[in-house]
From TrEMBL, chain A:
Main localization category: membrane
Keyword check for Flavoprotein: no
Subcellular location: Cell membrane
The entry's keywords: Amino-acid transport, Cell membrane, Membrane, Transmembrane, Transmembrane helix, Transport
GO terms of molecular function: transmembrane transporter activity
Pfam families: BPD_transp_2 (PF02653)
Record family assignment: Belongs to the binding-protein-dependent transport system permease family. LivHM subfamily.
GO cellular component, one term: plasma membrane
Membrane topology value: Multi-pass membrane protein
Transmembrane segments annotated in the record for this chain: 6-27, 39-60, 72-97, 109-128, 158-175, 203-225, 237-263, 269-293
Protein name from the UniProt record: Branched-chain amino acid transport system permease protein
Origin species: Jannaschia seohaensis
UniProt record, GO biological process: amino acid transport
InterPro entries xref list: ABC_transp_permease (IPR001851), BCAA_transport_permease (IPR052157)
TrEMBL record, chain B:
Entry's Gene Ontology cellular component terms: plasma membrane
Source species: Jannaschia seohaensis
InterPro entries, per database record: ABC_transp_permease, LivM-like
Pfam families per record: BPD_transp_2
Protein name: Branched-chain amino acid transport system permease protein
Entry keyword Transmembrane helix: yes
PANTHER family assigned to the protein according to its UniProt record, in alphabetical order: HIGH-AFFINITY BRANCHED-CHAIN AMINO ACID TRANSPORT PROTEIN BRAE, HIGH-AFFINITY BRANCHED-CHAIN AMINO ACID TRANSPORT SYSTEM PERMEASE
Primary localisation category: membrane
Length: 304, 317
């Protein structure tokens, strides 16, 4: 029970990071972006390629950090992967979504995002192969925290949780303490009015993609670190991430954080009563429960 | 020669069944502006429903041996009920919710069918279905031809039904809501209720396609309700032209032809060590078709013709 709770929190942190970016894009561009989860794969594979390259600079970087299986090289690759993935998100908007936006409505955007997701996922599969990869061949041993009840935690999981919380705090400060954060919120509330007051709409949209992509990349690396790097990780994570945005209320960053933890914990607790085969269905059950109990989510507001 | 004819009959049957599903999607997206991310769930509900009701007794649920036509109607009803539940929960909210919920229902449907051994046969699926009209059409080409005719009748009936619907006041109402919901509301119409009607009707049509598909193969398994089918059906509508029923049918034949041809080409000409990736290549192709059409020709090859929608009976308004 406690073990499931702890595992749930760790998975939840990863889902939260993915959901933050998604909810921001959904809030400002007003479409459900089904390709968002593929940005997690982009980030995970970017770090997978960059890690060995950085390790090539100096052999000392190849060693793991303390008890972690995460090496210095991969850790240094994370900010780079975040930048690359953020840039990928901006580029995708420039190449695809902007054009579709200009030609069709929100519905076309949703369809297009599915198409983009299919292309991204399978191109990654064609480049890196369909089989899973790992950042490190070292086996990450779990530390036993308590024998009764038996609770085991891997050092990697703790590191991931801490890093995820730091990233969330940084975003919180960015959104609540800077002019830039205010202008983003203004754009989300009322794009026309924000432009009148001198906010550059295009720059704001770019920033949202950049932030969303960067956080997704971090989530992807963390997922790869605690599970494995595989081309279909986006496919497996897209529904939990959407469930988190709905549970938190579409558009609410804090809701997305809470929603992510909720989905992660609920998913792990469900293993107590349901056979593991049903795990992929669980986010859907959460979505239905939220729609029944609180249609606009924990922090969402009714908006057409 | 007989082999070629057999294959063409087989191809036309599957393409026509898919065309029925595309017509259902056209009612959702083309006429009403609803996003259905889980076409395969409603298609699957139809297929599973039909085979469970009409099949021979099995270790899992089902095998009630209903006469085929009633089993088919039951399958359609299963799809409609599923759509009604999903629609009731999501259609009063902004459009993203329907998109996510329908995508979710498809994932959950496939996942449940794969795992629920006692309910739907699990990964082995459902077999043991008595094909209709076997007594006088036999099992070979004769039956296939008869079944193709039957599917074509269903396709034409669906087409005529939707064309009538488009020209009826209900069709104009759908387009009114799609274009300007507030205006429709100000005229005293209830957009949520009308959207629900359209969503359930379109899903029932997808269920009909699923039931015909299940009957054709006399077998359905979780492999038949994978997400790829949803994307194929979308690509058919996007290429054909949302809002145009003739385009939807043409798109179905075009994309299904391209899909089978690319699959055949890859298996025939691609190097052996690439065979493993043939699926990925096909996925990239279908994704590119969807994105490319939306970027460069969102109206499809056969755009919606609004002028035709006017009542032709000479009524004046």
């Amino acid at each position: 029970m406690i073990q499931h709770l702890i595992d749930g929190v760790l998975v939840g942190a990863i889902i939260s990071l993915g959901a933050i970016g998604l909810t921001m894009v959904m809030h400002i561009l007003r479409f459900a972006n089904f390709s968002h989860a593929e940005l997690l794969s982009v980030g995970a594979y970017a770090a997978f390629v960059l890690g060995p390259l950085i390790a090539g600079l100096s052999g000392a970087l190849e060693a793991g950090i303390g008890p972690l299986s995460l090496s210095w090289a991969v850790a240094l690759a994370v900010p780079l992967a975040m930048a690359i993935t953020g840039a990928t998100a901006v580029l995708l908007d420039r190449i695809v979504f902007q054009r579709v936006r200009a030609k069709g409505g929100e519905l076309s955007m949703v369809f297009a995002s599915f198409g983009v997701a299919l292309v991204m996922r399978n191109v990654i599969g064609l480049i890196f192969g369909l089989s899973p990869h790992l950042y490190s061949r070292d086996i990450a041993f779990a530390q036993i925290i308590s024998y009764d009840p038996l609770i085991m935690v891997k050092p990697d999981q703790v590191a991931v949780l801490v890093l995820a919380l730091i990233l969330m705090l940084a975003l919180h400060l960015l959104l609540s303490r800077t002019t830039f954060g205010y202008s983003l919120r203004a754009v989300a509330e009322n794009p026309d009015l924000a432009q009148v007051t001198g906010v550059d709409l295009k720059a704001a949209i770019r920033a949202v993609w950049l932030i969303g992509g960067a956080l997704a990349a971090a989530a992807g690396v963390f997922y790869g670190l605690t599970n494995q790097i595989i081309p279909v990780m986006g496919r497996d994570l897209v529904l939990p991430i959407f469930a988190a945005t709905i549970a938190g209320g579409i558009g609410s960053v804090y809701g997305a954080v809470l929603g992510g933890f909720l989905v992660g914990i609920a998913g792990n607790l469900a293993l107590l009563v349901l056979p593991p085969g049903y795990t992929p269905s669980l986010p859907f059950v959460i979505i239905i429960a939220v729609l029944l109990l609180r249609p606009h989510g924990l922090f969402g507001e009714a908006r057409a | 020669m007989i082999g070629v004819i057999s294959y063409l009959v087989f191809f036309a049957t599957v393409a026509s069944i898919l065309a029925i599903a595309v017509l259902g999607l056209n009612l959702h997206w083309g006429y009403t502006g609803l996003f259905n991310g889980g076409v395969v769930a409603f298609f699957g509900a139809g297929a599973y429903g039909t085979l469970m009701l009409g099949g021979a007794p099995q270790p899992h649920l089902g095998g009630f041996e209903w006469p085929w036509i009633f089993a088919l109607i039951g399958g359609v009803a299963a799809a409609a009920v599923l759509a009604w539940i999903v629609g009731l929960l999501t259609l009063r909210l902004r459009h993203d919710y329907l998109a996510i919920a329908t995508f979710g229902v498809a994932v959950a449907f496939e996942n449940t069918m794969r795992n629920a051994q006692g309910f739907a046969g699990g990964a082995q699926g459902i077999r043991g279905f008595e094909r209709p009209f076997r007594e006088f059409a036999g099992n070979g080409l004769g039956w296939n031809l008869l079944y193709l005719a039957l599917v074509l009748v269903a396709l034409v009936a669906t087409y005529l039904f939707l064309e009538r619907l488009a020209r009826a006041p209900f069709g104009r109402l759908l387009r009114a809501i799609r274009e300007d919901e507030e205006a429709a509301r100000s005229l005293g119409k209830s957009p949520a209720r009308i959207r629900l009607t359209s969503f359930v009707t379109g899903s029932a049509i997808m269920g009909l396609a699923g039931g015909l598909y299940g009957t054709f193969y006399a077998f359905v398994s979780p492999q038949d309700v994978l997400p790829i089918l949803t994307f194929q059906i979308w690509a058919m509508l996007i290429v054909g032209g949302a809002g145009n029923n003739r385009g939807a049918v043409a798109g179905a034949f075009l994309i299904w032809g391209a899909w089978t041809a690319s699959g055949w080409g890859l298996s025939r000409f691609a190097p052996v060590d690439w065979q493993l990736y043939a699926g990925s290549i096909q996925w990239v192709l279908i994704g590119s078709v969807i994105v490319g059409m939306l970027m460069w020709r969102p109206e499809g090859l056969f755009p919606e013709r609004v002028g035709e929608d006017r009542p032709q009976t000479g009524r004046t308004t």
